[in-house]
Amino acid sequence: MKRTTSRLVSRRLLLPFILVTSLFFAWGFANDITNPMVKAFSKIFRMSVTDGALVQLAFYGGYFAMAFPAALLISRYTYKSGIIVGLALYAAGALLFIPASMTGLYYPFLVAYFVLTCGLSFLETTANPYILSMGDERTATRRLNLAQAFNPMGSLLGMFAAKQFIVARMNPLDTGGRAALPDAEFEAVKAADLEVLVTPYVAVGLAVLVLLAIVRLARMPGKGDEERPGRARDVLRRVLAIPRYREGVIAQFFYVGVQIMAWTFIIQYGTRVFMNEGMSEQAAEIRSQDYNIAAMVIFCASRFACTFLLKFFSPGKLLMTLAVGGACLTAGVIGFQDVRGLYCLVAVSACMSLMFPTIYGIALGGLGADAKFAAAGLIMAILGGSVLPPLQAALIDRGTLLGMPAENASFILPLFCFLVITCYGYRARAAFKR
Question: In 131-141, which positions are buried (b, 16+ CB within 10 angstroms) versus exposed (e)?
């Protein structure tokens, strides 16, 4: 294979590259402090797993709602304006946890999550094409993988915060014990748990405001290129005529779905495994969170390794290979009903690490200024993280499925997702031959 020697980022754009890369860390934190909240809200409000998964519906629904408005903004103004709006909405959503906790109700938290992720949608719609534009197109996918490598670092910190500052500090009563409490005692426990849950989000909101001030004062190029993409309708007509782009949006939908399912339901999967070994529910949840953190460490390490491998291998071929590996490991998650299945679920993260930025880079390859609008379609595909986890949660709530624990059988959905991604990698592999 021919080695790519083009510089990833020019010296002129190094500082903007660093600032924009910090945003990948920021939304990684938000994503992964949120995944364990499905289980936490289910306990706090005495809800089913399906109702708790509405957190993911609200969270990833914000991505869908704001992707095209963000694309219109950065096309009319600048990438920097998109970043500023995104950080402002991110901070506002986090700080809305204060009034939400005062109501003592579940749905105001969903509103707060929605506002927060409207901000994340602006950030992702802006940051991804901005990074792609900061250098030679031949190194664009590798450059995006490098920037995205800092996303799981934020995710690790989010997981750590969820474990140490939320799950470990909540009332140790399990779901059954909470259900048996008289209403007055339950309300007292709920209020205390909500106070624990809100504190990290408020801290995040304040930190994001500081980051907003830094970006506002920094000198950043207005656009990654000088071309204007033209009217939105014309751009959409052009990009939707490209099979690699259309199929990329579909592949991204299923990738984000499988990522969120794997990281959200590792808690349910691990809790069942460890409770079968005699642990209490809370101890099993905390232990499962350790495995969730291990999965993210593997994901982070694999992202850097895959960024290196992209110097030598076609993005499509590497994507296809890792998707096949993910499908095989998911089959192990389904088939094993003990800790071996949990090991497979943790290992799946190694296969997922390459996927989001690589699908993104393949789909937007060669689009030039049209990438500003085309990027919105790929961010809207994050809706997969909103649609698919509730479907898996509904399967888990059945208790048993296909003659096995529903936590195992429900991973048929992630298996299907990996097969879709395999097909996309196979079809795209020739486009980036080196």
Answer: bbbbbebebbb
